[in-house]
Structures are given as C-alpha cells and as structure tokens.
Amino acid sequence: MSSVPDLSIRQFDFDENPETASTLPAATYFDRDWFELEKRRIFRRNWRCVGHVNDIADKGDYVTDAIVDQPVFALRCRDGSIRAFHNVCKHRAHLLLTAPRGTLKSKLITCPYHAWAYDNDGCLQAAPHCESIRGFDKSEIRLDALKVEIILGFIFVNADLDAADLLPQVAPGVDRLVRHLPDLETYRLASSITFDIAANWKNVGDNLLECYHCQPAHKAFVDLVDMDSYSVEVDGLWSWQGGICRPENTAYNLPAGLSELEREFATFYIWPDVAFVLFPGSRAIASFVFGATAAESTHQVFSVYTPDGELDDVTRDICRYFNDVLGPEDVALVENVQKGLHSMSYSRGRFFVDPERSYYSEHAVHHLHGLVFDHLRDFFHGA
Questions:
Q1: Contact between residue 281 and residue 255 where contact means Cβ atoms under 8 Å apart
Q2: Integer CA distances (angstroms), 362 to 89, 134, 239, 380, in order
Q3: Strand bridging mode 48-52 / 145-151
C-alpha cells in the first residue's frame, strides 16, 4: 500500500492545541485502507490487555485473544511464568488454541489439525511422520513470541518485541489506581459482558473519553457523579477522568459513610484500547477493552474483577447498571455517530475544551487523536 486514497486524510494537519484543533477526518473512521495502516502502525506496535494473571492461575492455563486479525494466546507455563505467542501453528496456520480460555491437556501445546506439538517455550517437539521429510529439522521451528508485561496483575502483550516497556509510560496513572485498590494482583474475574458494536474503535474511544455527552445522554450517570467535581487529566500514553459520587442516586446506591476517595468514580485510559474503571462503593475494578475487529466494528469487553471473584450486592447492582443502562446507551450513541460520519455534509468537528479540564472538556479525546496522528504522521499530507 503506497498511499491512502481519501483526500481529506492526506490533507489533514493535527493541531496540538486542543482549543483550536479539529478532530480527525471522518474518513479515518471508515476508510478500509486507513484501517489497514492502523493495524500495522498502531495495534501491532502497542500493548494489548488480554486478561489478568488469575485468569490463568494454574500451570497449563491459557487465554486467547486477537490483536485485530492476529490471533494470540497467553499461557501459564510449567515454571510458573507467563508467556505469550501468536496462536498459529507453523505447519498450516490452524489456530492452536480455539477456546477463549482453558487448560492444556498435556505438557505440550498441540495443534488439533495435524498434531504438531510445541513446548512452553514455543519450540516444536513433535510433528508426526516428520522423519520421512527430507531436510526437516524440528529444532528450527518455533512459535513467534510476544512481549509480555504484567501491571497490577493485568497481562499486557505486544507483537513488537522491541517495544518500550509500558509501565514507565503510564506509571503516574498506575500509582493513582493503587491508592484506590492496592491489592489488584490478587483479584479474580467475577463478571464479563461483551458488546459487538457497529462502529470504529476510535469512535468508541472518543465516547469513553469525554463526558460532554453525559448530561443529555446519561441521566442516571449525572445523578450518580457530581459533574461540578469532574475533571480530566492527560499525559503520555494515558488519561484519567472522573468525579465524586453522590450516595443516593438513580444509577445505584452507595453504602453510607464512605470517604471522598471511596466515592470517586474514575476512568484510567491506557493507549490504545483499554481503560480501567472504578465504581465507588465497591472494591471491584472493571477493565474496558474496545478491540477493533474491522474498519467499522469493535468488540467491547467489560470485565469486572473483585477480591474474591464474587459479586457483592453493590457490585452486582453496578453490573446491572452498566449491562442494562449505561452500556446500551453508549452503544446506541456511537453507532449513530458511525452512520453520521459517512455524511457528505461532515468532514471533521471541533473539540469542546475547558482550560479548567471540567466535565465537558474533550482534552482526552484530543489526546487520543494526537496519538493516532503521531503513529501515522507520515501518511498524512499525501505521503
């Protein structure tokens, strides 16, 4: 691919000042050639959250995922370490592991197609009848590994083995999360819900990262969170936003007697496609992964982790609120935006920003757009 065909993309110049900037061109939200560039330049070079260490607590446990169209898996190895590989057999490209999660039936990772088997280092150990194949050397064949990093118990993988470590780039946000929940490494999955959304991943991210839409679109949410206390912070590869919640509201009721810290709702976003959400009144944390699957489709997974893997009454009510109210409200919003992005009457919009970083400030959306621009800078201006 030598160029991006849409003229509005080629002529775009990103303004680093959010007060005067315009959003990314509409075509970047549906142009298929542009999405191919994003797959290579963004998703195959950045960190993807694939779960928590306690999702694969025992030796031989695994989880599978996909970095857009690249199947991957993370495995708890026999030495207790966690490793990750491309989930593709080196023989004929069959997926090695086909379930979302499970446990290996033996010490080896065995392809269900022709029974090629690999050890926990990804080295080929068995290939039936290979002794009859001229010049075949098992020792030369191994699965392609991914880089792995564990942050607060959550497993991040990267297809770029030379990628910079993630933690130093998001440490201030991680430190803030630890002040709320210092023992996240011990948490266990309690609930998960998925939404397959007919919208581009950036569209889903834009909606997640601003609360300008909250008053008209999320009546219960603005009854829960005091919008006067809401603020937005951006830095590097992360952003943080949220506010203080009211104990009595129409979303869900908080326990009495909580401190201000315990009543803070917060969204901690890590580039490019994951956020961690704190719901006050609960010791739970939610991971919010909005993984791109195509130019105009996103697979959104909202997973709730708790200290014991169980839902107490408050956390169960939070799940009910997100699953039945807040989540569907946002899905409808972004799907309608996706339709509007195709209109010949729209090319790009303006950011609504407040120097005080209040609830209606779209600083975090501007931050997301800036990161997209940085990763594909040379493809703008007709490059």
A1: yes
A2: 44, 62, 11, 23
A3: unpaired
Name the CATH topology of 168-374: Naphthalene 1,2-dioxygenase Alpha Subunit; Chain A, domain 1 (3.90.380)
**Range 327-333 contact pairs with CB under 8 angstroms and sequence separation of 24 or more:** 327/193, 327/195, 327/302, 329/217, 329/218, 330/207, 330/208, 330/217, 331/195, 331/197, 331/300, 333/207, 333/213, 333/217
Question: Domain extents for the chain?
Answer: 52-151, 168-374
Q: Which residues of the chain have pLDDT under 70?
A: 1-7, 381-383
Maximum alpha-carbon separation in the chain: 74
Residues ≥6 apart with Cβ < 8 Å to 322 = 193, 286, 302
Reading the block at residue 81, the tokens are 């370490």
Predicted local distance difference test score (pLDDT) of residue 149: 98
CA–CA separation, 302 and 317 (whole Å) = 15
Cite the beta strand spans of the chain per DSSP E. Answer: 48-52, 61-67, 70-76, 82-86, 101-103, 109-110, 117-118, 124-126, 145-151, 154-158, 188-197, 231-235, 238-244, 264-270, 274-278, 285-294, 297-306
Tokens of 85: 């590989």
User: Around 66, how many Cα atoms within 13 Å sit in the side-chain half-sphere?
Assistant: 19
Tokens read off for 208:
């997640």
**Distance (Å, whole) CA 312 – CA 226:** 24
- At residue 13, φ and ψ (nearest 5 deg) are -130, 120
C-alpha to C-alpha distance for 61 and 144, rounded to whole angstroms = 19
For 220-268, write each residue's pLDDT tens digit. Answer: 999 999 999 999 999 999 999 999 999 999 999 899 899 999 999 999 9
What is the structure's pLDDT at 2?
46
pLDDT digit string, tens, across residues 76-109: 999 999 999 999 999 999 999 999 999 999 999 9
Overall pTM surpassing 0.90 (yes/no): yes
52-151 is classed in which CATH architecture? 3-layer Sandwich (2.102)
* 130, two tokens: 């290979």
